[in-house]
Amino acid sequence: MFTRHYQVWPEGLPHHLTLPSTSLQTNLQVSALRYPDHDAIVYYDSRLSFARLDAEVRALAGYLHALGVRRGDRVLLDMQNAPQFVIAYYAVLSANAVVVPINPMNRTAELRHYIDDTGARVMLCGQEVYPFVEPLVDDGALDHVVVAAYSDYLAGETDLALPEEVVAQRQPIEKAGVTLWADALGAGHDAPAQEVGPDDLAVFVYSSGTTGAPKGCVHTHRSVMAPCVGGSYWVTSTPHDVNLVTLPFFHVTGMQTGMNGSLFVGCTMVIMTRWDRRTAAELIQRYRVTAWRNIVTMAIDMLSDPEIRNYDLSSLKGVGGGGAAMPEAVEQKLFEMTGKHYMEGYGLSETMATTHVNPPDTPKAQCLGIPAFDVDSRIVDPDTGKELGPNEVGEILIHGPQVFQGYWNRPDETAQAFTEIDGKRFFRSGDLGYYDAQGYFFLVDRLKRMINASGFKVWPSEVESLMFEHPAIQEACVISAPHERRGETVKAYVVLEQDQRGRVGEQDIINWCRETMSHYKCPQSVALVESLPRSPTGKLNWRALQEQEWEQAGGA
User: Fold this and answer.
1) pTM above 0.70, yes or no
2) Does the structure show a pLDDT above 90 at 334?
3) Domains of the chain from N-terminus onward
């Protein structure tokens, strides 16, 4: 067991945490019993109590059960941050089923993969993404869809700037297999009896590896519960806390620190559907927000606002997140304004968010932190498996209660993702790092081929696969390129079909990509080339292009 970090462990906290032997939905039920009139959600000045939240979860769970959803069935959840996401997530769990959260930027072709892979027949989606879902109803890929309009949860007037999706009024949809959210809640059903426990399947979070389409990380109620409970204790969260939720709920960090942790503790979520730095600052001031977990680019954006000093941010007890290292100058500005240091952490879809986190009182800058409750983390040579010592760079391995069961229906890839040390099953993160003499971990590079654009993970192989659908593209190689604001972004090298050369331009391909895939996946630049570099065995040498790209940027 790695224990070097115990020397900087937060005072008063145990090294081992006993987890509840219950399912996730029990957390909401308990909080609703304890604090029925307390605000569970504040949504652009509209409030939703714990009692109402629990009642609507039960009603929607009953509707799903009436549709035929049963224990272990997978249900797709395709929404932006809104009260309906929280209700839908817990309704699926209360129907004894498995939540499959999806990035709402996905288009029809991308959604079809999740349907085919999970066998899901039911989806809950936002009104704004329904046009991409409708073809899947028409061709029978989905049996039933429940469509939510976020404006249904605006109870009164607000002076806050509202995103277009939030302002949009509920639209009628008359189609077999499609039900509006309000009608589903009003159908008069109650939740079925609870059948699942801590070791039943709860959530499939999709993440890509180095090859192939996105794959489902299988999590049980226990593996989701572990970082949810641990994270709440780590920052001593109480029902009096108010969390500003700006990270997307479909992403594990937003899911855990924003939603699941808040419902476990019984504190209030102030939810934003879309990021807007002025709105975020106003919400912190208006609702005396005590905690804000974000990606570094959000914090940088807010603190770069020349008007930020006009807002009262003094209520913040903690600000932190990840996605990239926090620049020292920005961290210093945060400290000057709030008296709080930025608390960075580390985790993956395979670990349902946090495995490493900085101690609240002794954080280090540009640092992943120390292993969290019951996490055993090692650094090993990725080629030999030899365990390494302090300040030696190797692959980060993780053993802990939050580690996933494996990749859904992919036994070979699951086997490759794990290794055994001292009789324990360790997850191979694919990230290169090291730890110092005190047990703080630092990230050096990524072993896997992945692009991190403002916290969004982009898998080149998936983008390439989608690009190959373009009739003019003969070959494509997607790499990361440096970007001033996002840290890194997506670039594609493209070889056109012979008869399309001179007829199709770089911007034509970029425009096509924007219509075909999620915006954050789209190549921001395209280079048309005659051929792509290959290894002696004929494999595409993407690494050569990527190294060339970053070297040229460094010399510019």
Assistant:
1) yes
2) no
3) 4-11+22-357 (3.40.50.12780), 370-446 (2.30.38.10), 451-555 (3.30.300.30)
